[in-house]
Amino acid sequence: MAGRTVRYRNGRNTSRAIRAAAVAACATLVLAACGSTKDNVASKGDGGGDGSGKVGVILPLLTSPFWQSYNDYVPKMAKTEDVDALKTVNSNSDPSQQITDINNQLNQGVKGLVVAPLDSAAISAGLDQAERKGVPVVAVDVAPEKGKVAMVVRANNVAYGEKACEYLGKQIPSGKVVQIMGDLASVNGRDRSEAFRACVKEKFPKLKVLEIPAKWESDTAASKLDTLLNANPDIKGIYMQAGGVYLAPTLQTLKSKGLLKTVGQKGHIAIVSNDGIPQEYDAIRKGQIDATVSQPADLYAKYGMYYIKAAMEGKTFEPGPTDHDSEIVKLPSGILEDQLPAPLVTKENVDDPELWGNTVK
C-alpha cells in the first residue's frame, strides 16, 4: 500500500529483453514453462472445477478516483473473462470491516474471491477463512504478508518509488524534497517509501528527504503538508504516493500558500505522483505537476478476473515472463505475484491513447 528477492523494473523494453532471453532458453528446454501466461500454467489440480460459480469482489475504498475507475472496470472485465462476479463490496478503508466482508461473501457461497487488501497483515484472517472453505482468492494491488492466495495482481511498487526518485533527482540538483507516504501497514506504502528513500541516498545524496506518513488519507496529507511547508518553505520537490487521494489536497495547500507555480515558472515545486488517473493527466497538461506513474486500474481488473477463473479451474502458475508485458515472480513469502507494467507519464506522453487514464471520463 518489504523488500523482495526479485526486483523487476516494469517497462516495455525490459519486458521484451526478458522475453527474448526466455525464448532462447525455451529453445533448449522444450519442457520448461516459458514465454506466456498460458505457458506458465504449471498444472491443473485434480480438484479443479470448471471455473463456474459466483465470485465476490471486495474493494478497499471508493473515495479515490483510482478505485472508482477499478470499480467501473470490474463488471466489464468479468464479462470479458467469463466470470460471474457479484456486485462489488466496499470495505470503506476499514481492515476489520474487510474481514467481515470476506466472511459475508463466503457465507453467500461464493466460489472465488478477488480482494484488494487494506492491511497486508490483517488480511490473513480473511484468507484463512477462505482457505478453510476451499475458496480460492486473488489479491489485487497489495500482497498479503501471509495466507494463501492463488496470485497477487500488482505493479512493481519498488519501481514506483525508484521512478519518482530518478525523475525528481534529475530535475532538482540539491535541496529538500518531501514524500507523502501511504499507509506503512501496507506493503505498497512500505515498498514505495523504502525505494524512494534508498534511491535518493544512493543516487542523489544532495537531496534531503522529508516525510509525511499520511495513511492514504487526504485530510492528513493536507494538514501535515501545511505544517511542513511552514517550517520548510524552501521545499523543491514532492513525491505523492497516491494521486487519487493526495493530488487535490496537495495542490490546494500549495495554492493557499502561493507556492503553486507551473512548470517553467520561477519557484515551481517539481511534483511526481502515482496512480495515472485522469485528474493527474490534466494537472500534467496544465503544468501543475510534472509526472505520474500509471498504476493499471484496467489491468488490475482484467487479470484479477483472469486469475480467479484459472484458480477456480484448479490451475496453478510458475514464475516467468508473461504474454502481457509482465513478469510472474515468487515473493519471499512463497506467494506468486504478476507484476504488471506501470509506465512513467510526463508531458511528452500524457496524451497517449493507450494509457487507461485517457480512456475514462
Q: Supply the helix-strand structural class.
A: alpha/beta
> DSSP strand (E) fraction?
15-25%
Helix-residue proportion: 25-40%
What profile does the largest beta sheet have?
A: 9 strands, mixed
Beta strand count: 17
Principal-axis shape equals: elongated
Distance from first to last alpha carbon:
25 Å
What sequence of helices (H) and strands (E) makes up the elements? HEEHEEHEHEEHEHEHEHEHEHEEEEE
Mean pLDDT: 88
Figure out the total of helices. Answer: 10
Radius of gyration: 20 Å
Query: Low-confidence stretches at least 5 residues in length (pLDDT < 50)?
Result: 1-36
Describe this structure in words.
There is one protein chain. By secondary structure, the chain is α/β, with parallel strands linked by helices. It has helices at about 10-30, 65-80, 95-105, 125-130, 155-170, 185-205, 220-230, 245-255, 280-285, 295-310; strands at about 40-45, 55-60, 85, 90, 110-115, 135-140, 150-155, 175-180, 205-215, 235-240, 270-275, 290-295, 315, 320, 325-330, 335-340, 345. Strands 2, 3, 4, 5, 6, 7, 14, 15 and 16 form a nine-stranded mixed β-sheet that branches. A six-stranded mixed β-sheet has the order 9-8-10-11-12-17, sandwiched between helices. The longest helix has 17 residues, at about 10-30. The protein is elongated, with a radius of gyration of 20 Å. It starts with 11 loop residues before the first helix and ends in a 16-residue tail after the last strand. The relative contact order is 0.18. The model is unreliable at about 1-35 (pLDDT under 50).
Keywords:
single chain; 361 residues; alpha/beta; nine-stranded mixed β-sheet; six-stranded mixed β-sheet; elongated
